[in-house]
Amino acid sequence: MPKRYLKKFYVKDYVIILIGLILYAVGLIGFIKTGGIVTGGLAGVAMLVEYATNGKIPLQYTYFVVNFILLTIALKVLGFKFLSKTIFGVLVLTLLISLCQIIFKEPIIKGEPLMSAIIGAMMCGAGIGLVFSANGSTGGTDIVVALINKYKNISFGRGMMFCDFTIICCSYFVFHDYQKIIVGIIVMIVMTYCIDLVINGIRQSVQFMIFSDKYEIIADAINRELHRGCTLLDATGWYSKKSTKVIVLLAKRNESLQIFRLIKSIDDKAFIAQANVRGVYGEGFDSIKS
Fold first, then answer.
1. Is residue 43 helix, strand or coil?
2. What element of type H or E holds 162?
3. 288 lies in a domain?
4. Which phi-psi region, left, alpha or beta, contains residue 285 (left: φ > 0; alpha: ψ -120 to 50)?
5. Other CB atoms closer than 10 Å to residue 221's CB: what's the count?
6. 282 in a domain, yes or no?
7. Within this chain, do residues 160 and 249 fall inside the same structural domain, yes or no?
8. Based on the domain organization, do 115 and 258 belong to the same domain?
9. Which end of the chain offers a freer environment for a tag, N or C, measured as fewer CB atoms within 10 Å?
10. Which distant-in-sequence residues (6+ apart) come within 8 Å of 7 by Cβ?
């Protein structure tokens, strides 16, 4: 059982997951499916089954049955604690898809299949991003990749992309139309971008490692001109065998140009390494996530 002070965070997680699932269900049924487009994941497989059977097997049935089988297998391998939010996501999404199937009989945007696909992909991507940000899951290929990842050293993102690409390409056997594949790939790219945008946030941060003999002047200028704190690390150049200091600086992405200009104005021979940082939390940056 979660500790008392953590309970509010667990409730918040499930609320975020619910909002994400609503966005996903509306985007999937109201924009993508009604436009005759196939997306990736288990939802894509379920859509192909529905298209192939002329609607005799609704996608929510395939989605639930396959997820039930996958969850039964995964529970023994990954455990209930890992899959508790996934079970919640699968059950709620099945109900939401069934409801949306009743509400959305026609595309929300008529006569614009590509625009409908892009809007649907944005909604689905934002929805999945919210679910992932709360450590939830919609099941399906997420479970498959998690099982493979437990025993094989494969990137989660790469595994998901391979599964989605394969599913979309299989739509040719149902529609015999290459355009459906192209639109499906566009949907996959937009969804992936939106997922990343929601999870990582628009305000990305960067990390600088600055190597310069004028480290004191640069560090003072960073504090004074940019109003940013920085840290000095002891270092030794192995070629020269000289001891020096390395400046470590965390800043927002839009401050990068100012930092480069400042350093160049002081020491145009400085060596600078810049890297993207997934998240920086604390004073001057984002608040600590809960």
1. helix
2. helix 156-169
3. no
4. beta
5. 17
6. no
7. no
8. no
9. N
10. none
pTM of full prediction above 0.85: no
Query: What CATH number is attached to the domain comprising 233?
Result: 3.30.70.120
Which residue matches tokens 């391979």? 162
Residues 59 and 78 in one domain: yes
Element holding 274 (H helix, E strand): strand 271-277
Percentage of the chain lying above the pLDDT 70 cut: 83
Nearest to 255 by CA among 228, 279, 283, 216: 228
Give which of 256, 199, 245 is closest to 222, Cα–Cα: 256
Q: Which domain holds residue 91?
A: 4-200
284: left (phi over 0), alpha (psi -120 to 50) or beta: left
Taking only the tens place, the pLDDT of each residue in 67-78 is 888 888 877 776
Residues 135 and 231 in one domain: no
The total number of structural domains that make up the chain: 2
In a domain, 285, yes or no: no
Select the more confidently predicted residue: 82 or 68. 68
Report how far residue 118's alpha carbon sits from residue 38's, in angstroms, rounded to the nearest whole number: 12
Residues 124 and 250 in one domain: no
Alpha-carbon span 141 to 161, nearest angstrom: 10
Phi-psi region of 207 (alpha: psi -120 to 50; beta: other; left: phi over 0): beta
User: Which tokens hold the place of 77?
Assistant: 């391998």
| Residue 290: inside a domain | no
Q: Phi/psi of residue 104, each to 5°?
A: -100, 90
* Domain edge (last residue) among 139, 172, 200: 200
* Segment holding 257, helix H or strand E: helix 256-266
